[in-house]
Amino acid sequence: MNIPANAASPSAARTLADPDTPFAVVDVHKSRRNIERLAARADRLGVALRPHVKTAKSLDVAGLLHDDTPCPVTVSTLAEAEAFADGGYTDITYAVGIDPHKLPRVLALLRRGVTLRILLDSAEQAEFVAEASRRAGLPIPTQIEIDCDGHRGGLKPDAPTLPEIGRILYDAGCLDGVLAHAGESYFAYTVEEQCLAAKNERDIAVAAAERLRAAGLPVATVSVGSTPTAHAAEDLTGVTELRAGNYVFFDLVMAGLGVCRIEDLALSVVVTVIGHRREYGWIITDGGWMAMSRDRGTAVQAQDQGYGLVTDLDGNLIPGLVMTGASQEHGTLTARDSAHLPDLPVGTRLRILPNHACATAAQHHGYHVIDGARTTNTAPAIQTIWERVTGW
């Protein structure tokens, strides 16, 4: 495994007390537990699971999904698709709307024997995909994005252009199916709301598929999923596959929705106390928004978690201590709810649990891997370092 030049090797960095901070940490025990939970649920629901690798963007993390055996995955960039193809993955869905400039890279992957499905939601896109497919003499498997909750792109299942788009793709040998993503489920604050979001996601996707079939068009794939709806779905009749990605790490937004517990969060960032402003009740660390991201996803939830909750180096929450401020390379920790501001000398190492795992992970080249199931009398041992895929 290649290790980033600015990261210590596992032999040099023996524990979380060794590398220069800030750096990202993954607890492999928690990730495995999260992965097993959703895999068991997909089995009960009788659907294939197509994990989204956009959160971790790591072949090593993906290796946890299916005992190091390549499985169907979803990606958010062609750089991910290419990296995962290099890693032996041959069944990939690129779940972002396509544009003409990216089609040569799509075709290059198809020529390598990778089944790479692309996504679109307009006749304009369907026309240039069909034309590119004909010129290349190679069908480009394509899914039509269906809008199930007014979030981002997609067509409503009753859109007049849906059969037209399906026909354009089918005539070029490119029609694969439909895909929906319940993005608004990230604002479903109760179990009941999440169940309704999951039902709506399924109903809308299945309705779109049935409309295409009624027009004489075959629909092989009906794909749905988001982390909240994947964990809330009770019936996926008519669906062929379930997608989710955040669940591998989870984060404070998911914990705020009740999809997971705080103790399920597998990603954290190690920072060091570098100063105090006692007159303001501040503890200053070397981990600002460049380490955590600017994401403030919990601000709209019942409990605003600032930029993240704070634990000691062993992962134990420090009661009432929150990362409430961030500049580029400085983090500000304060006590809330009348909690006592702990005495943390300069040099103290802490871990910050993130609001949004995808955004925080994107700030780092890779992950220092620990196993929370192994207890020692020292700081958690670093097992290895896992690289991330970067770029687009």
TrEMBL record:
It comes from the Bacteria. CDD domains: PLPDE_III_DSD_D-TA_like_1. GO terms for biological process: D-serine catabolic process. Residues 266-371 form the D-serine dehydratase-like domain. Transmembrane segments: none annotated. The keyword Lyase applies. Pfam families: Ala_racemase_N (PF01168), D-ser_dehydrat (PF14031). Keywords: Lyase. SMART domains: D-ser_dehydrat. GO terms for molecular function: D-serine ammonia-lyase activity. Signal peptide: none annotated. Belongs to the DSD1 family. PANTHER family: D-SERINE DEHYDRATASE, ZGC:162816-RELATED. This is DSD1 family PLP-dependent enzyme.
